[in-house]
Amino acid sequence: MLGFFLARQAGLDDPLRLRRAESTRRVLGLELNKDRDVERIHGSGVNTLDIEPVEARYMLSGGSDGVIVLYDLENSSRQPYYTCKAVCSVGRNHPDVHKYSVETVQWYPHDTGMFTSSSFDKTLKVWDTNTLQTADVFNFEETVYSHHMSPVATKHCLVAGHRQEILAVSWSPRCEYVLATASADSRVKLWDVRRASGCLITLDQHNGKKSQAVESANTAHNGKVNGLCFTSDGLHLLTVGTDNRMRLWNSSNGENTLVNYGKVCNDSRKGLKFTVSYGCSSEFVFVPYGSTIAVYTVYSGEQITMLKGHYKSVDCCVFQSNFQELYSGSRDCNILAWVPSLYEPVPDDEEPTTKSQLNPAFEDAWSSSDEEG
C-alpha cells in the first residue's frame, strides 16, 4: 500500500490506480454485515432491488406481495450497530399498489424524484417519489417480466418492457439506442431502436460454427435465458440461463468469448437479477446461486467466493459502487447487507503473506513498495 502512495506522490502513477486497487481489496473482502440490518417490511419474497445513482443513498425493493419499499441506507445515527429504515412504502392498503408480484423496480437515472415498477398484474407504473402517487400507468395485455430505463440516454426517455416470454431487458450503458433482450426460447438479441428492422444481432453460443440444422444453433443458451447484465463500460454482456451456464459476450460483434464459469446453478422460473462491480482493477459479477451469491471474476471466470447468509433462494442483488457494498433480496423475505471486512493485524508469530498467496484478482494492481518505488 505504501508503494501506491509513494508512486502517486512522485507523479509516477495513474490517479485511479490506488482507488481501483482498494476497491478490489474491498470487494474481495465482502462479508455479511452483522452490525447493519435492513428493516423487514415484505411479507413474502424480495424480487428486485435498485439503488439510486445520484447519491447512492436510497434503495427501492419490490416483493412478491406487490409491496414496494424505499429505504435510507445512510447511518444517520452514527452508531456502530444500526438498521436501514424504510422511509416509506406502497403497502397493501395503498390505492395504487400492484395487485400481484412486483418483478422490477428502477429509479429514474437522473433524479430521485421519480421511479418505475412493473408487475405480474400486467402494468408498468411511474411514481412520484415525493407524493408516492402514480404519475402514469401503462397497461399491457400480458405479464410484464422486466423493464429498464437507459442510464445514459440524453435524446430519449424510452422505457424498455417486454411481455410473455421475454424474461430480461437491459439498455447498453455505452450506447443509448442499443437494447439487449433475453427470452425463454434460449435467444438473446441486441437491438438498435432507431432501425426499422430493429434487431442487430442474435447471439450464437457456437459463434456460427455449427450448421443451422443443429437445434442449438443461433441460441445463446440451451435453456431459458432469464438474466442479462452489461459490464459497467458496456463493452461486454453477461447472460445466465436455466442450462446452469453464464456466458460473456462481446457486445459490439456478438461473439461468445468462451469464458468458462463452470456450473452456475439457476432454477429460477422467472427473471434472475444479478449485478457487476464498478471501478475495480479486475471486475466481478455477483450471481444469485440458490440460497447463496456466487462471486466470479468477469474476464477469467474464476469463482472467488460464495456469500452465505440467506436461508431461501436469492432472486436479486445490487452493487453499491461508492463503498463497494452489496445488497441481496431473497424468498426468505430478508434484505441482507454485505460490506468489506476490516483487515486485522497479523500476529508477530505468523509469517506475512507473500505475493504468491494473494488472490489472483490483485495481481494486476497490488504490489509491494519495492516494486512500485
Can you describe what's shown?
The protein has helices spanning 2-9, 15-28, 369-372; strands at 30-32, 36-38, 46-51, 58-63, 68-72, 82-84, 86-90, 102-107, 114-119, 123-128, 133-139, 144-149, 159-163, 166-171, 178-183, 188-192, 199-202, 225-230, 236-241, 245-250, 275-276, 284-289, 292-297, 303-308, 314-320, 325-330, 335-340. It has 373 residues and is mainly beta. The chain has a four-stranded antiparallel β-sheet with strand order 1-27-26-25. Strands 3-4-5-7 form a four-stranded antiparallel β-sheet, with no helix packed on it. A hairpin with a 2-residue loop joins strand 22 (284-289) and strand 23. The longest helix is centred in the first third of the chain and has 14 residues, at 15-28. Mean pLDDT is 86; it is low at 344-358 and 365-373.
Write out the strand line-up for the largest beta sheet, numbering strands in chain order.
Answer: 1-27-26-25
> Strand-residue fraction?
35-45%
Low-confidence stretches: 344-358, 365-373
Question: Which range best describes the helical content: under 10%, 10-25%, 25-40%, 40-55%, 55-70% or over 70%?
Answer: under 10%
Give average pLDDT, whole number: 86
Q: Structural class, please?
A: mainly beta
Oligomer: single chain
Number of helices: 3
Pfam families: WD40
Organism: Ursus maritimus (Polar bear)
Keywords: DNA damage, DNA repair, Repeat, WD repeat
Protein name: DNA excision repair protein ERCC-8 isoform X2
Short characterization:
The protein is mainly beta. It has helices spanning 2-9, 15-28, 369-372; strands at residues 30-32, 36-38, 46-51, 58-63, 68-72, 82-84, 86-90, 102-107, 114-119, 123-128, 133-139, 144-149, 159-163, 166-171, 178-183, 188-192, 199-202, 225-230, 236-241, 245-250, 275-276, 284-289, 292-297, 303-308, 314-320, 325-330, 335-340.
